[in-house]
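Design job #97: recover the sequence.
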């Protein structure tokens, strides 16, 4: 039964083979996609030990990018018990790598899109553009996403222009 939606899983979650679409339901302009993860277990975020001891499960609703309708992803996630006696983390929730992150309310692709809008347009204009694209993100969210981006690596300059050279020597060619 779940196999019938595998094509949709590939379409909606490309390069995320561990995400399996279980069911799709439409209601008005809302497309609700129910998905789960297919891994047999997960690694504990604290100690790294692999666990397949399911403690429970619940549904997460990470906010995703809009499609032709409003796409609602409901992701069934499991909570696992860490088997390491010395580990301070008794239980943990599995993460869909590339789709969600711990305590994240949005999908990674929405996070990346909002960061891109923030970089290109900054706060106010970026928030306006996000609204036009159907993404709910405030001005402060845009700025926060930009601040979350890793700093670019600082390397040696690729080329030194003639102006840089002249200024360094104390010459100014242009008034
Ligand atoms: Zn652990």
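Job complete. Output follows.
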């Amino acid at each position: 039964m779940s196999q019938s939606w595998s094509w949709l899983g590939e379409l909606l979650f490309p390069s995320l083979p561990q995400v399996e679409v279980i069911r799709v339901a439409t209601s008005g302009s809302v497309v609700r996609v129910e998905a789960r993860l297919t891994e047999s277990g997960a690694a504990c975020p604290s100690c790294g030990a692999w666990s397949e001891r399911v403690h429970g499960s619940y549904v997460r609703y990470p906010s995703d990018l809009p499609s032709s309708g409003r796409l609602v992803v409901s992701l069934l996630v499991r909570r696992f018990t860490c088997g390491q006696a010395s580990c301070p983390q008794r239980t943990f929730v599995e993460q869909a790598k590339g789709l969600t992150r711990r305590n994240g309310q949005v999908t990674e692709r929405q996070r990346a899109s909002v960061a891109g809008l923030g970089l290109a347009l900054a706060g106010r204009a970026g928030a306006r553009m996000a609204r036009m694209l159907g993404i709910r993100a405030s001005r402060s969210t845009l700025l926060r996403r930009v601040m979350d981006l890793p700093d670019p690596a600082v390397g040696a300059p690729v080329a030194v222009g003639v102006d840089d050279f002249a200024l360094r020597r104390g010459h100014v060619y242009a008034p």
